[in-house]
Design a protein that fits this description.
mainly alpha; 0% strand; 67% helix
C-alpha cells in the first residue's frame, strides 16, 4: 500500500515527464520494429562495416585489422561480438539485428537517466526540462533513423559524451575522464572535447591576453571567406570535378556566389550581438602548462598513447580517411544551396537550431561565461555544425542543450508555450513519413539519390535535391515564424 502511494505521488509530481518518456518509447519502438534500410540486408551504407565488426571482430581484429579511420569507430559493435563469443551465440543476421535492437533500448535508457540527472544538476524548471527533452529526443535521429539504420556509432557516441559531460559538470573528474576514453573507440572528437573542457575548466587571469577581434566579426567574416577561397582555389587549379564531388551537383558560379552571400548574411544576423573575444593561442598554451599538473597530463597522455599504439598495431594499410579532405568538404558543402546548413539542421533537429538563433545573445553569454574550455569546445561544435550533414554534431549536443536550458530557465514560459513547441518539434521530426515506398529499393541500389530516395537522403544536407531543399527552406521559414510567435507569447 505504501509503495502504491509512493508511485502515485511520483506520477503526480513527474506526470509530464512520464508522459514524455512514454511518447518517446512508443515512437522509438515503432522505429526499432519498423522499416529498415533496404541495403546490405538492413545494415545500410556505413552500417555495413559496423555490421561486419559485430559479426567478425574476434577474427578480423587479429588478422586483417581495420583501416586507420574506422578502427576508431568500432565500439560498441566489437562488444557485441565479444559477448556473442563468450556465450557461444551464433552471429547470424537475425541474432545481430535482435542484439542491436536490445542495445539501442539499453542505450536510450542510459541517455534518459543521465538527461534527467543533468536537468536536476542545473535545477531547471519543469517547463524548461520538457523543452530540452523534446529538443534532445523528439527529432528525426531518435524517432526514425536509430531504428531505420541501426548499425551506426552516432547514438552510442552521444551517450559516451553525455555521461562523461555530466560527471565533468558535477566536478567528478575521474569518472568523467575514464568514460571519455570510450570515445576513442566510438567518436574521438568527443574525447578531445571532454579533455578541452577539463584542462581549461578554470577562469584565466584577468590580465590574460585576448584576440583583437570579437567573435561576431571574426566568424561572420572568416567562415564565408574560407568557403569562397576554397572554391576559388579549386577553380584556379582546374579541380572542378573535386568541387562537384563535394557538392553532388554541377558547379554553378552564380549559385555558389549566392550561397556565399547568404551564408555571410546569416552568420552576421546570428552572431551580431556576440561580443566575446577568445584568448590568444599563446594564452591557452601558457595556461595549460601553468595549471595542468604533470600527473594530470600523465593520467590522460599515457593511456591515450597506449590505446593508440595498440590500435595502430591492428590497423591495415587501406586508405579510407583524409582529414584535410574532410575539412575541405565541410567548407564546400555549406555552399551547395543558399542557407543549406541551417535548413539541413532544422530538417534533422527541428526547433533546436531555431531556439538557439532566437536566443543567441543570451545563449552565447551563457556559453562563454562558463569557462575558457567551454568557449573552445563551442568552436569545435560550431566547426562541425557548419557542415550541412547535421548528424555530425549529434554526440556533442549537450554542449548546446545545457546553456540553452539555462537561458530558457530564466524566461517565464507557460505550459501552453511548451505544449506548442513540443507539438511543433514532433511535427518537424517527420518520423511518420515512410521511407521504403515503391521504387525506393531500386533507387538506392542504383545510387539514384535524387528521386524517391530523397525520403532518406533529404535528411543529410549534402544529398538534398533541389526539390527537397525548396520544401525544407519553406518549412524552416514557417517554423521560424511559428517559434517567434510562440515564444513571443510565452507568458500567455
Amino acid at each position: 500500500m505504501l509503495a502504491l502511494q509512493k508511485i502515485q505521488k511520483t506520477l503526480k509530481q513527474q506526470g509530464v515527464f512520464v508522459l514524455l518518456v512514454l511518447v518517446l518509447l512508443f515512437i522509438f519502438t515503432l522505429s526499432i520494429i519498423g522499416e529498415k534500410i533496404p541495403l546490405n540486408d538492413g545494415a545500410g551504407y556505413d552500417g555495413a562495416f559496423y555490421y561486419n565488426v559485430a559479426q567478425n571482430f574476434s577474427t578480423d581484429f587479429w588478422t586483417t585489422g581495420y583501416d586507420n579511420f574506422r578502427i576508431y569507430r568500432i565500439f560498441p559493435f566489437c562488444l557485441i561480438n565479444l559477448i556473442f563469443q563468450l556465450f557461444s551465440i551464433e552471429t547470424t543476421h537475425a541474432n545481430l539485428m535482435h542484439s542491436m535492437s536490445i542495445l539501442h533500448f539499453f542505450n536510450l535508457a542510459i541517455q534518459l537517466t543521465f538527461f534527467f540527472k543533468l536537468a536536476r544538476l542545473n535545477a531547471w524548471k519543469k517547463v524548461t526540462t520538457a523543452i530540452i527533452f523534446g529538443c534532445f529526443f523528439f527529432n528525426y535521429f531518435f524517432l526514425k533513423n536509430c531504428g531505420y539504420e541501426m548499425f551506426l556509432t552516432d547514438a552510442f557516441a552521444s551517450t559516451v559524451f553525455l555521461v562523461s559531460f555530466y560527471y565533468l559538470e558535477r566536478k567528478k573528474i575521474l569518472p568523467a575522464l575514464l568514460i571519455s576514453f570510450l570515445g576513442i573507440l566510438s567518436w574521438p572528437t568527443i574525447t578531445y572535447t571532454i579533455w578541452i573542457l577539463y584542462f581549461f575548466k578554470d577562469p584565466f587571469q584577468q590580465t590574460a591576453s585576448r584576440l583583437k577581434y570579437p567573435t561576431d566579426k571574426a566568424l561572420a567574416i572568416t567562415l564565408p571567406m574560407i568557403s569562397a577561397s576554397t572554391v576559388g582555389i579549386l577553380y584556379l587549379l582546374h579541380k572542378q570535378p573535386l568541387l562537384e564531388s563535394a557538392l553532388f551537383i554541377p558547379a554553378s558560379i552564380f549559385l555558389l556566389l549566392a550561397s556565399v552571400i547568404a551564408w555571410a548574411l546569416f552568420l552576421y544576423f546570428v552572431l551580431r550581438n556576440c561580443n566575446y573575444r577568445f584568448y590568444t593561442p599563446l594564452t591557452y598554451i601558457r595556461e595549460f602548462f601553468q595549471n595542468a599538473l604533470c600527473k594530470k597530463i600523465a593520467f590522460i597522455i599515457i593511456p591515450f598513447i597506449a590505446i593508440n599504439l595498440y590500435l595502430l598495431a591492428h590497423t591495415n594499410d587501406k586508405f579510407y580517411f583524409c582529414c584535410s579532405a574532410f575539412i575541405l568538404q565541410i567548407f564546400i558543402r555549406v555552399l551547395k544551396y543558399p542557407l543549406i546548413t541551417p535548413v539541413a539542421h532544422v530538417c534533422y533537429f527541428g526547433i533546436l537550431p531555431l531556439l538557439v538563433i532566437f536566443f543567441f545573445r543570451d545563449f552565447s553569454k551563457e556559453i562563454f561565461n562558463r569557462s575558457p574550455g567551454f568557449a573552445l569546445a563551442f568552436l569545435t561544435f560550431l566547426f562541425l555544425a557548419v557542415d550541412s550533414e547535421a548528424r555530425h554534431v549529434i554526440p556533442l549536443l549537450p554542449l548546446i542543450l545545457v546553456p540553452l536550458g539555462c537561458v530558457l530557465d530564466k524566461i517565464n514560459l507557460s505550459v501552453k508555450t511548451v505544449v506548442a513547441l513540443l507539438s511543433l518539434q514532433l511535427i518537424l521530426s517527420h518520423f511518420y513519413i515512410p521511407i521504403n515506398v515503391d521504387g525506393f529499393a531500386e533507387a538506392i541500389s542504383n545510387y539514384d539519390y535524387y528521386t524517391v530516395a530523397q525520403r532518406y537522403f533529404m535528411n543529410f544536407g549534402p544529398w538534398m535535391s533541389l526539390k527537397s531543399y525548396f520544401t525544407w527552406i519553406i518549412i524552416s521559414a514557417v517554423s521560424a515564424f511559428l517559434v517567434f510567435l510562440i515564444v513571443k507569447k510565452r507568458r500567455i
